[in-house]
Amino acid sequence: MAKLVIVESPAKAKTIEKYLGSGYKVVASMGHIRDLPKSLLGVDIENGFKPRYSDIPGKTALIRQLKSEAAASDGVILATDPDREGEAISWHLAQILKMDTNENNRVTFNEITKNGISQGMDNPRSLDMNLVNAQQARRILDRIVGYKISPFLWKKIKKGLSAGRVQSVAVRIIVDREEEIRAFVSEEYWTIDARFSKGERGQAFPSRLYGTRSGGKIKIQDKQTTDKILDELDGAEFKIAAVKRGKRQVSPAPPFITSTLQQEASRKLGFVSRRTMKAAQELYEGVEVEGYGAVGLITYMRTDSLRISDDARRDGYDYIKQRWGENYLPPKPRVFKSRSSAQDAHEAIRPTMPALPPERVRESLSPDQYKLYKLIWERFIASLMANCIHDTVKMDISAGDYIFKASGYTVKFDGHTVIYVEGKDEESETDGPLPALEEGTILVKRELKGNQHFTQHPPRYTEATLIKALEENGIGRPSTYSPTITTILSREYIEREGKALKPTTLGEITTGVMKERFAEIVDVDFTANMEKQLDAVDSGKTDWVKTLDEFYGEFSKTLELAEKSAAEERIIIPDEVSDVVCEQCGKVMVIKSGRYGKFLACPGYPECKNTKKIVKKTGGICPKCGGFIVAQKSKKRRIFYGCSNYPDCDFMTWNEPSDKVCPKCGKTLFRKKGKAGGLFCATENCEYTEIPQ
Which fold, 188-251+388-454? Predict the structure, then answer.
């Protein structure tokens, strides 16, 4: 009889079974099979927080099948994901299949490759109950917070609201930033900017007034002061007073961890975190690659460790030497230091086969898989490479008592930047190259003017910067960032405005109530400290029941006081006013939320019952009639694109319009769905297409 290996997903099962061969049968549990019941708290608080697990609805037939397969096998191996969530799934499987949790029947795979699977199978162990208890503690704590606070919010604000240990803090961070933006008072300031050159035909370069020889740096706050300085500079001689040359070493960014992968995919690819993690999961579990069969292309994607294996480093070095040469390797191996709170069980996110560049696997991957694999591969290879070296120049330029400064650099050796440069959340001014000039050189003034500026309020969070803030504040773990953002968007506590995340009126009101009644739950420091205590359960340093008991003692008192106030006046959420006028009665329509999402409604209800769909213009032009292409949702909540002139024009497509136009007919190009991707023209008889590069 074959041994039964249980993993979480069919894709992973297919890849692993290929490597294990005929002596094994690999099946999928399809994620969790047991959980706390949806309709009940499911936790016996009075008796040591004992959880009351039940089979997940819809999994009965699968559980029956797993029991049958286990009974007919020559032993069961639990091979779920290598983290606390995967450990908990294995423990639940062991309970259902009546397995001995002390036996060495648990294996983990950091990568789904022949070598990774071989290493995992050669090192079986017993279930790690510290990890299981850590997952139980988090699950129970989240259940208590959600099930105890949510009913209070229903009474106080409206039904259907929810609170969460991580989600409520994430919303608060976004709300606090919005309050900062509203409270911000912009201040005027001026700069005096110049462009100089050596001779009339020399290369012009930029410079900015720094201050005076006698008083140091100056701050200009109005036009009058600016004009006064410009008058004093009129006719002045501009001379290079000092030149300082140097070298600057620019180190590469470390390989990805979960949070930095989500941040960089947001910056460079425009991916939301859920889209990033979906593609990463597929790359980890295995895809069919021509010449290799089913293989996992990246290591496990939920990690906060920067460690990489010696084998991966060696393979990366070999590729770098072969492609760019020995001088692109650092003088000694570079080691990146993980955060003190990082779990070091896994490596950083890296390609499983560094010698397999993205262009070699492109035809085997979907567009999202290819883009993400390229990002991960390039980041990893660059992290192993030599520093980029800049020749830097700083100049002081004198003009009477005033000093201008200019700085710049040229690239002496490109190093790791030959393949990858890390993205930035905010644009910054970068120094360009400066001409070779010496001290004492008299310069020609090509331009000299004052420029008015105003200080800017802090930017709204994007997914990338919110994930960074959660990580830096110790809120949540790598596995929670994406689902947290998905939850607070679906609950309509926040909304997207382009890439920015903005709190809704509902989000602000709910956060205000939480700050007033459950201050600790939405306190960043308290939540971060709670996270540390839960992490301590992972390593067995803290008892999970004791941790829950200490939390609940204070929480129950806070809850009791809040419930007494729940009978006070209910908070009414004001309707959001639109810019659409009701064509039936002339009132300005408001935005309301229903079971199928937001819609426009007339505030004159019940006298006027007019409602309308909210249509979102995409910028695309209908190829049939020239109307606007608008995004809409089907009854099954799928987004489709149609003409604004419907029903007079019946154009409809599932393909998203792009911001490009067809070079043949001038109409909007659409993005092809599916693995191939690319752009195409939907105009009748125009067969123009663009293949993605």
Answer: Topoisomerase I; domain 3 (2.70.20)
